[in-house]
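Please fill in the sequence for the structure shown.

STRUCTURE ENCODING:
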């Protein structure tokens, strides 16, 4: 993960990622969370053990996002409606 962070440059307009694409309106916290998820996926793909601190940060950020979506949109019962719709078609 250190390689990715060392290649990132934070500017007043956002961040330039290691692949050169500009990402606007990203806070340092969002950038760090994205890097954590990328590091998690890299560990999974390589079959390496996942650092417990990394897993904890990803879980905490995921929970925060889930709460934000639920506060904004309410509880979404999409699966129940989709299953009922499929049953009605048969």
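FILLED IN BY: designer on duty
SEQUENCE:
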């Amino acid at each position: 993960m250190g390689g990715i962070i060392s290649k990132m440059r934070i500017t007043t307009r956002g961040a330039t990622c290691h692949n050169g694409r500009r990402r606007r309106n990203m806070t340092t916290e969002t950038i760090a969370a994205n890097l954590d998820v990328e590091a998690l996926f890299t560990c999974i793909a390589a079959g390496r053990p996942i650092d417990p601190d990394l897993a904890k940060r990803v879980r905490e950020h995921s929970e925060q996002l889930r709460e934000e979506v639920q506060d904004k949109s309410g509880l979404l019962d999409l699966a129940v409606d989709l299953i009922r719709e499929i049953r009605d078609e048969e």
